[in-house]
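Aim 2, interim progress: modelling of the magnesium ion-bound target.
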Amino acid sequence: MNYKNIFIDLDDTLWDFHANAKSSLHEIYDNRNLGQFFDSFEQYFSIYAKKNVELWEQYGKGTISKEALSLERFLHPLVQVGINNSELAKQIGIEYLDMLPSRTALVPHAKELLDYLYPKYPLTIVSNGFVEVQYKKLHSCRIEKYFAHVVLSEAAGALKPDKQIFQYALKLNNAIAAETIMIGDSYEADIVGAQNAAIDQIYFNPQSTPDSTNNATYQIKSLEEVLNIL
Ligand SMILES: [Mg+2]
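Predicted structure of the complex, ligand included:
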């Protein structure tokens, strides 16, 4: 297939969300001397990370509000060690959201991939993230210059996997679905989403998470492998 346009997800496809979240929390942990309550940062982070995943699932199902998610994920680790301090949890949450988008860790080979694709194709970010946060990330790690367009759900009026956000991105590029391919790490949002819009897909699945329903056009474990496809 001769592709003429590349769509690409940002979080955990290019920008290393996990590493950046961890380093932000580590800095807050040190600044706020949370070591007085926990055995180690690793202990704190593992309690946080487990709860965070659960809360995002509940938020996705609509059983908790965004405010509850924002507070509870930072309050829970404190409560686990006997510190029921919602004011502290709230402050940690504010600092975290402020710090996170200025972090610069990229997924391995992301820069190399962008350098390779940039001269060959117009590249478009397609992301469900918030406008302010996503532009700050692109700017912090100096990759904004690679993109012809940045399509975020707020502007498109729809979230991945809704085909509307992909159709919005096609229109911006004056492109057609048959000549476009989407690269992303979320099977549900990126792969199923692109399929909904009849766009081919490269599923970036570094952990090789088995998924019986996986019928992505291509599947890769490392971003380097894109160089063999495009
Ligand atoms: Mg992602």
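The mean pLDDT is 94. The CA atoms of residues 181 and 200 lie 5 Å apart.
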